[in-house]
Structures are given as structure tokens and as C-alpha cells.
Amino acid sequence: MQLLLSSLQSSGQDTSFIIFTVISVVLTLALLLGISMLSKVKTAVKGNLIGAGAVLIAIVLTLWYHQILDVYLLWAAILVGGGCLASSLGKR
Asked: Rounded to an integer, what distance in angstroms lies between the CA atom of residue 9 and that of residue 38?
């Protein structure tokens, strides 16, 4: 891994871009795994959670990487979203 990073850095690539790309590929694979798990009844709920989690992380990562939102605003949005989710689950 270190050899790969050092060879990419010597070619002029930015380290944060490399990390962003690697994480994006992993999240894409997680999304595809989640979609494939939807085809069976026993694994559909877990596949839905994996896919939704991968998409959520990908959206947050993209907004943070491109500096559309700063870290504090992202944490505030996560807290508000978590509060809304807890509120809706508490009413069941």
C-alpha cells in the first residue's frame, strides 16, 4: 500500500484525492453488495441497510471533500437527522 501511495504521489497526484478515490471505490462495492443482497428475502433487510449506509457515507464524503459543507455543519445535520429518526421510531 505504501509503495502504491508513494508511486502515485511521485506522479503528481494529491494524497487526499487518492484517499477519496479509494474510499469511493469501497463505498461503490458496498452499494453493489447491498443491491445484490436485496434479491433474497433473508438478506434483503441487511442489504438495504448496507446500501443506504454506503450512499449516506458517500454523500457526506463528497460534500466534505469538495468543501461544500464544513465539518461542523455536517455534524449538525447528522444530529438533526438522528433526532428526527429517533422521534419517528419512538412513535411506533
From this structure: 39
